[in-house]
Amino acid sequence: MTGMLIGAVFGTIFVIVNAHSPLNAAIGTLLRVVAVLGLAGVIGMWVLAVRRAKIGGVEPAAIPGPSTNMFSPGYWAVVAAEVVLLFGGIAVLRALDQPEQANVAWVAFVVGIHFVALAPVWKQPGILVPGVVLTLYGVAGLIMASTSAVEWVPLVSGVLSGATLLAGSIFFARLGLVSQNMSERITPGR
C-alpha cells in the first residue's frame, strides 16, 4: 500500500504541475481538484489499511503476487539509474536546444522505464502496464516537442501520465483493501 501512496503523490504532482495552458483554465483547475481528491482517497485507503493491519494483523496485498522488500538493493539501483537518467537526459535536451516541454516528456519516459525495470525486482508484472503507458506518453511527448504541437506535451506526457499513476494507485489501493477484508473474513479471531 505504501507503493500506491507514493504513486498517487507523484501522479498528483504530475497533474498539478502540468494542467495549464493551452488547456482552458477551468479544465486545468478541475483536473487539479480531481487529482487532489484522488490522492485524498488513496491516503484514506492507506490509513484504513494500516489501522486494519494493526487491529487484525492482516497486511493488505495491493498487487497480487509474492511479497518482496520494497526498498531492496535492486530498488535502490533502479532509483539511482533513474536519477542519473533524469538529470543527465534533461541536460542533454538543454544542450540540444530542445523546448522546455521536452523535459516533461523525458520525465514521463524515465518514470515509465523505472516501473518496467522494477517489475522483475519486485516480482510484480502488474506494474509493467503503467510502466509501458508512461513510457509511451514520454515517447509521444518527445516526438511532439519537435512539432507545432509542442504546447500540448505537458497534457500528453504530464497530465495523462499523472492520471495513469493516480488511476492505478486508486485501483490497486482499493484491491488491497478488498484483499485485506477477505483475509480477515477467512482468518477470524486474528
Explain what you see:
This protein is 76% helix and 0% strand. The chain contains 6 helices and no strands. The model has no long low-confidence stretch (mean pLDDT 90). The protein has helices at 2-18, 25-56, 73-95, 101-122, 128-144, 153-186. α1 (2-18) packs antiparallel against α2 and α1 packs antiparallel against α6. With 190 residues, the protein is mostly helical.
Would you spell out the secondary-structure blueprint of this structure?
Elements: H1 2-18, H2 25-56, H3 73-95, H4 101-122, H5 128-144, H6 153-186
Biggest pleated sheet: none
How big a fraction of the residues is strand?
Answer: under 5%
Bin the helical content. Answer: over 70%
In DSSP terms, counting alpha (H) and pi (I) runs of 4 or more, how many helices?
Answer: 6
Structural Rg: 18 Å
Sum up the overall morphology in one term.
globular
How far the N terminus sits from the C terminus, by CA atoms, comes to: 20 Å
Q: Spell the H/E element sequence.
A: HHHHHH
- For the residues shown, what is the average pLDDT? 90
Given as residue ranges, the uncertain stretches (5+ residues, pLDDT < 50) are none
Would you report the number of β strands?
Answer: 0
Main structural class: mainly alpha
